[in-house]
Write a structure and sequence with these properties.
362 residues; alpha/beta; 60s Ribosomal Protein L30, Chain: A; 2 domains; ten-stranded mixed β-sheet; binds guanosine-5'-diphosphate
């Protein structure tokens, strides 16, 4: 799926770079362009693609300091500059746009949903969000910001693919120490997903294409992406168990949003040497995903790759009702209630996360 990335804020820019580098390293060519947008000049300095500094009149290149309302305002005033940078990048063959941001900060948290809304008005291709949820040890400002951003981002984007910063953390590793490895895990998952949707000439019809990714995400709301890999035997028949076990691990322990298993739709992609992918195994794994997600819309396909491993990707669409998300929303609500000073000038937090509001995400 040929895509253009727009990283908003510090985490957004870093993750966009990681995705660009992964795509280049693997030689996939699915990432067709990238732009980074920020209010902080220093965060744009090391990025190897076009950058746009917004809000110079308000914050003079120093960032919005975690104020996501200011992040949203600045994006609103300077949208035109971002759109100009995209001119000529979103071209006829572009199949999707990804707006990438950390939800807990200021620029990305406030700016990404605003930019997404503008992009949807202009472009016909799906505009997806790739959003990072703060880990549970991050401060209350991050939780509150992310709670508010999540809601608007999910509403504006065609689907919001969420990554929990606690998802890929090793024991004893702080969130900051873990950034590099988390970013790598995310780039690998998203990079493989985009590449799997590329047409591969001369191979069987069981390969995945972009429309299957788009259809899996069609119900909107929140999405999650799981991954696991194992060593493969040369003979497909011997890999049935490997496909089953990587599928289970991808969904149950390798997901970007752990514990999100109830889904509206899913796409199971088995990557590996074409001769090593067992048809029977893929079908069995697909049925298992159906049972586990409670969805009758589980698509399945191959991603032929030259590798001595079998890797499984599970994309889930419509996972808003997952336990992990509810835990996070509760955390955001608690953090907002504790934030006595801020609470006085904000809307009633209790109102924000009623079930009706959650339904609005759908
Ligand atoms: P902004 O520049 O104002 O948009 O703020 P940030 O992008 O720094 O957003 C802060 C949030 O993003 C926090 O929840 C951080 O934990 C998270 N974050 C910052 N940098 C990274 C990163 O490189 N990787 C990941 N996974 N999360 C990050």
């Amino acid at each position: 799926m040929k895509s253009v990335l727009i990283g908003v804020g510090q985490a957004g820019g870093k993750l966009a770079r990681e995705l660009v580098e992964y795509d280049e390293r693997m030689g996939f060519g699915s990432v067709r362009g990238a732009v980074a947008v920020n209010t902080a000049k220093t965060d744009l300095q090391d990025l190897p693609f076009e950058t746009v500094l917004i809000g110079q009149d308000r914050v003079k290149g120093h960032g919005v300091g975690g104020d996501n309302e200011l992040g949203a305002e600045v994006m609103q005033s300077d949208t035109q500059e971002v759109l100009s940078a995209l001119d000529g990048r979103v071209v006829a063959g572009t199949e999707s746009i990804f707006v990438v941001a950390g939800l807990g900060g200021g620029t990305g948290s406030g700016g990404a949903p605003v930019l997404t809304r503008e992009l949807k008005r202009i472009y016909d291709v799906p505009v997806y969000g790739l959003g990072i949820l703060p880990g549970k040890d991050e401060g209350s400002m991050y939780q509150v910001n992310a709670g508010r951003s999540l809601k608007t981002f999910a509403r504006e984007a065609d689907s919001l693919l969420l990554v929990d910063n606690d998802a890929f953390r090793s024991v004893g590793e702080s969130v900051t120490e873990g950034y590099d490895s988390i970013n790598h895990e995310i780039a690998q998952r998203v990079g493989l997903l985009l590449a799997s949707g590329e047409a591969v000439e001369g191979v069987a019809e069981s390969v995945v294409d972009s429309s299957e990714i788009i259809n899996t995400l069609r119900s909107g709301g929140i999405a999650a992406l799981g991954y696991a890999s194992a060593e493969a035997a040369p003979d497909a028949e011997e890999n049935i168990n490997a496909v089953m076990s990587t599928t289970r691990r991808a969904l149950l322990t390798g997901s970007s949003l752990p514990d999100a298993t109830d889904a509206d739709a899913a796409l199971l992609i088995v990557a590996g040497d074409q001769d090593a992918i067992p048809r029977k195994g893929v079908e069995r794994a697909r049925r298992w995903v159906e049972e586990e997600t409670g969805s009758l819309q589980v698509r399945g396909g191959d991603f032929p790759l030259s590798s001595d491993r079998i890797a499984t990707l599970v994309l889930l669409g419509g996972v808003e009702r997952s336990e992990r998300l509810e835990t996070f929303l509760q955390r955001a609500k608690d953090a907002q209630e504790e934030d006595v000073e801020g609470a006085a000038e904000r809307t009633d937090p209790a109102e924000q996360w009623t079930n009706d509001e959650l339904d609005d995400l759908l």
